[in-house]
Design goal:
By secondary structure, the protein is α+β, with helices and mostly antiparallel strands. It contains four helices and four strands, in the order H-H-E-E-H-H-E-E.
């Protein structure tokens, strides 16, 4: 999570630097971001995960996921993945998508 604990200007600086390095060095960058608007702005592809509950009394070091349980809600292009329905499932918050210039932003619904 490269932007954790950073103020807004430093978040932008870090993400712009990562994007520049990825383009100029022709490398793939894999990172965790909890801010979907940053994914809209900087990601070519995203994987949206659901939070899996920690079960009381289960040792996480020995727990095994069942085959019918997945943590992936959707993956692919940010515009296709970061939909209001998917974000609601992942974060438990209703959102609307707002167009601002060339960008799309997720904002909490009323």
């Amino acid at each position: 999570e490269p932007t954790t604990y950073l103020d807004l200007s430093n978040q932008v600086r870090v993400l712009e630097t990562i994007a520049h390095l990825a383009r100029s060095q022709d490398v793939t960058v894999l990172m965790t971001i909890h801010e979907p608007n940053q994914a809209f702005a900087y990601a070519d592809a995203v994987v949206l995960l659901r939070k899996l509950a920690v079960l009381e009394g289960v040792d996480p070091t020995t727990a095994v996921l069942r085959d019918d349980v997945t943590s992936v809600i959707a993956s692919g292009d940010p515009l296709a993945v970061l939909t209001p329905a998917n974000v609601q499932e992942a974060y438990g918050v209703g959102v609307d998508i707002v167009e601002h210039g060339q960008r799309r932003l997720l904002v909490p619904s009323d």
